[in-house]
Amino acid sequence: MSLQISSSRCFRRLFLSSFPPELLNEIVHYSSTPDLLTFCQISKQFYIITVRLLYRVVVLAWPVQAVKFCRTILTLRVAAFAVRRFTIAFPVKHLSRNFFGLIAKALARTVYLEALDISNALPLLVQLGPTSFRCLTQCSLPYSTKLVQFLKTHQRIQNLAVQPPTRHHVSHLVTDEFPYILLPRLETYVGPSKVAQFVTPRSNVCLLTIFWDSAPPDLVVHSLALSKKDVHTLDNVVVRWDPALFTAIATCLPGVVMLRIRNANLSNANIEPFFENVLSLLPKFRSLINFSISHIYNMPVEVADLEKEYKTVVRWGQVVPTLQICTLRSMLCWRLVVLHLTSFL
């Protein structure tokens, strides 16, 4: 009986080993996790393909998963070489430094890592230190002075997201002495304005989402204009309606195509002077197609508000011929169609 089972297994291995790698990849790709674990026992070729698929994208939802991941990466070279994207998705509060040291040691073996998301794991950024990921092009990091060393080591980054600061990490906040860092391949940036002004000059950045802090708007926007490419999309998250910000954008970035300003504060203080400033400066924009001024949170809307928005958008369309789409505080999308304004929910 055991001889028959052994012969059957040998036959399956020989049969499957005759498949071309492309077909094996397809079989593995469309199989469930339990089936993949079974495939690992069939043949070495199946094992390698399966491990590469299982560890290509790693999202750790629990600390226990992190420990298991580290054990695997530190013992299986094929798993370490398979990792392309790594994310920590669990709260890191109260976890020990040794825990993050173990993760950093495992990550150091993932030489082909392309995307790293540790935006909620400042202790891990500290532990990574001088670790270099030669293939890293996309990362999401916490707001800290430790950014400096990490970014200087990874100048191939194309997409950078920096988590805005929280009260829990005051001692790690970026200071006014944050140095300029050359990221020549950077194309997309999401993060605080204080960091943006030091990483965007001489880069290829053209898509930005800026969380405005205490940094002067004129200095930051001027640094954005030093990108080697024209800024196409600029999304601004603010806490107050600041005419100086719009003045800086109109002066330094008149070629922007999509411009959005979102207020995280429910207050409408100083909004009328802000809109007056917008109207006076809109003619400076030569390519503006999509323009939005709104709150992050939905506000109560009345019919009178919509009538006022309609008149506002009509005036904007008259001074900016390229303008096609507008979104204001009602969150209605006003679209210019053959010189007639209509609204779409």
Automatic annotation (TrEMBL):
All copies of domain F-box, residue ranges: 13-58
Listed Pfam families: F-box
Signal peptide: none
Protein name: F-box domain-containing protein
